[in-house]
Fold these 2 entries.
Entry 1:
Amino acid sequence: MTLTATAPVQVVDKRSARAFVDTHVMPYADDYDRIGRVPEDLLRQVAAAGLWAPFLPAESGGAGMDLVTLGEVHEEVGRGCSSLRSLLTVHTMVAWTVQRWGTPGQRERWAPALAAGDVLGAFCLSEPGAGSDTAAITTTAVERGDGWLLNGVKKWTTSGQRADLFLVFARTAGSIGAFLVPRNAPGVQVRPIDDMLGTRASMLAEISFQDVVLGPDALLGPSGFTAGMVLTGTLDLGRYSVAAGSVGIVQACLEASAAYAAHRRVGGKALAELPLIQAKLSDMVTDARAARLLLAEAGRLKDAGESSTIMATWIAKYFASTAAVRHAAEAVQIHGANGCSPDYPVARLYRDAKVMEIIEGSNEIQRITIAGQAEREMTR
Ligand SMILES: Cc1cc2nc3c(=O)[nH]c(=O)nc-3n(C[C@H](O)[C@H](O)[C@H](O)COP(=O)(O)OP(=O)(O)OC[C@H]3O[C@@H](n4cnc5c(N)ncnc54)[C@H](O)[C@@H]3O)c2cc1C
């Protein structure tokens, strides 16, 4: 199924994204969580607001947005609904990859449709037997005639139930290739994965590819191009978006907790007057600001084309995701029993936050990477 944007692409910034989220997302995020999907109407509104891929250049249908601003926009979406932010993240990864690594023909065919939200993208790397260990993927793409024959199974594909275009990583003779695979290609099968712990409306799926025949134009980049650079760059941008979404979760925890603590009275006092509660709120304020600054630093380095952005993004994501888990737990605590009920958003924030420590580089992999870099720098 495809979407048709009904309004021209808008220029988005943090303020307009916040207004969009407050009106169209925040009031309904718990419902999306309960029904396990983001409704088509909202996807259309995201398209009309120009939120799908505003970083693409104008000739590809985007608004040429810088990556600092993109981070701010994804923070706002993450503040409202991590499931929607997850859909945005994987779509961003696909649109960016097409723009950055695609041939002129691939860009012309896909980029404007991705910018308009007429085509939604999903990112297929993980497999039943390969997650952190990306080198263990077993999906194969074998050259056949002037095209490819794709076989394998991808798991945990965010937006897999909904997306129209899959960016699939597969083994080729002696390398790994990145392939653009339309959902409706014969041999593609989608098995929904529902009832996850968090980001429950992000429409995950297991995707199997059985003798899927692809043309030569499915392979990203010129012939002989390996997917290593594509993987590094695409995962880096996805990680940046997840870091932004995690900052949004901390901010949402702060806003929900401050509002609740101002009104809930215990022993004749508002919770907000109690020193132990004030300590929790002040830690949320401080970590939200610190996480936002780390994210902005990573974004500035991206905009400047500095390769050090990759480590800055690892650090931003590590800090923001662990802060999200810590503060979501405290937000539930501040709400007491209400925090465990479906009547307040903090239970959802708590479940969503945990996912942030697993996706786009788990916490353990982040620590290994950050420590490895520190060791290299110290022993130079
Ligand atoms: C909600 C959700 C959405 C997702 N969306 C996508 C998607 O759109 N596309 C996609 O391709 N994938 C997606 N994934 C998969 C995700 O990328 C993987 O879950 C992640 O890479 C971790 O892999 P794994 O789950 O196989 O864990 P494993 O790799 O099996 O790791 C298990 C545990 O061991 C730890 N570990 C691994 N290696 C080491 C080590 N060397 N030292 C110490 N500890 C280690 C890990 O940190 C983890 O805690 C999604 C996952 C979730 C939960």
Entry 2:
Amino acid sequence: MTRTAVVTGGTGGIGFHVAKQLQQKGFAVTVVGRDPGRGADAVAAIGGDSRFLRADLSSLDEVRALGVRLAAEGPLHLLVNNVGGMWSTRWETADGIEASFALNHLSPTVLTDALLGVLKAGAPSRIIEVSSSSIAAVDGVPAYDDVEQDGEYYGMAVTGRAKLAHLAYTLDRAEDLRGSGISVLVVDPLGSAAAATPNGMAMTPEILPPAFRGLWDEIQQSLRPAAAGAGPIVAAATDPALDSATGVVLGPDAAPSEDLLRFVTPEISASVRTLTRRILAD
Ligand SMILES: NC(=O)c1ccc[n+]([C@@H]2O[C@H](COP(=O)([O-])OP(=O)(O)OC[C@H]3O[C@@H](n4cnc5c(N)ncnc54)[C@H](OP(=O)(O)O)[C@@H]3O)[C@@H](O)[C@H]2O)c1
């Protein structure tokens, strides 16, 4: 039976290379993005059994609609929650939610919830969450009593806080799903490096706190190709050595890493759970 995979943000950036490599490994791949033209180009380049589905994953209604559509199609073997990012200036989604929190945490949470039934039907199956080392840029221990914390907006710290929320939530999910046949893995694809993806190329020095903006040229010169981030994500998705692994974070070398786990505390996990349930119940 052909194994099926969904890659969010699979028409460009890191996700495109993930989707292409998964197709080469025999998956029937669905890539999700906003733009039909970029979707058609991506499917032509991925080849094989691939298709594009359009959804703006910053809109929770569109995420839910995508989930309903995919859930009606039967067993799913792999969900790669890749969409996410970091922005230089604060913006809100159509739902009125700060975008980093929406795209890095709420959107993959809602999509995963919608697809749990088909992932169970496809077991053994995997959920891969794409995280980032921006978590290490969060100043102090973040609170999660609301979507946003007081203070000035710096994309790096705001994204780090959202990625940390999603990591904490994902580790809980991995425990909930233990023994279900669905394994849940998190990947920090680039460690302290960054890649020249559409999102990466749109950033400006304002993502950094003022004291670090002098490093901008150096950061720009060290950008890696988008494909560099795909390797550990594809390994997490396919490596048979990880068949029994769940609730594990893999670093850029695709090996288990404690680097991001040390930021998760029981208090953070509990407050993220409460906040997430509150927002999604509204
Ligand atoms: N780039 C880095 O240096 C880096 C480092 C560490 C971790 N990461 C993580 O890796 C993941 C991918 O990063 P990336 O830099 O490749 O991102 P990216 O440049 O934004 O990825 C582009 C892909 O995402 C789609 N996309 C963007 N916004 C979307 C939306 N609202 N709804 C649906 N699709 C959307 C794009 O298609 P459309 O534009 O057509 O929608 C395209 O397919 C993210 O989770 C990011 O946090 C990235």
